[in-house]
Amino acid sequence: MSKKRILSKSRRKRVRKQGKGPPCHLVELYLSEASVSRPGIRHGVPPPGHVKVEVKCQGGELADHKNHLGFSISLQAIAGYEEEGEPAVRVRGDFVIVYKFKDLKKFSPEAIAGFSQRPAMMHVWPYWREFVQSATSRMGLPPLRMPLLFPGSVPGEPPSTQEE
Known about the structure:
- By secondary structure, this protein is α+β, with helices and mostly antiparallel strands.
- It is about 25% helix and about 30% strand.
């Protein structure tokens, strides 16, 4: 049984010729650096506690590739966080993500900066969730589950329940 194509071959050619379609596509995404530690646990399993997520994004146009944007997104999850003491578990990961645009000149610097906060984060988040869960379970701890990330939500903040 063959799969149905969403667009016929001739229709795809026309769409490409007209310049329609997505303004960019994902070129690569990878975890460049990671660390997992349990400084607040000497023996046993930590009690479930508050999970704090910190996010840092930086990046911009790649000088050696025309119409490419690259971002470095650093994420850190801290579980069992105590204001005075060390956290029970700390998981950190740095992701690199690169996009190729049809014409990058059409976008303002503000739009480019916002791109790392929304679309890039939506692409990275599932890999981050899997990494945190598998890393904590491999340490002999209950898997630490990161929340789902929905369009418009910000990592580290509770999801909004009301329309704005």
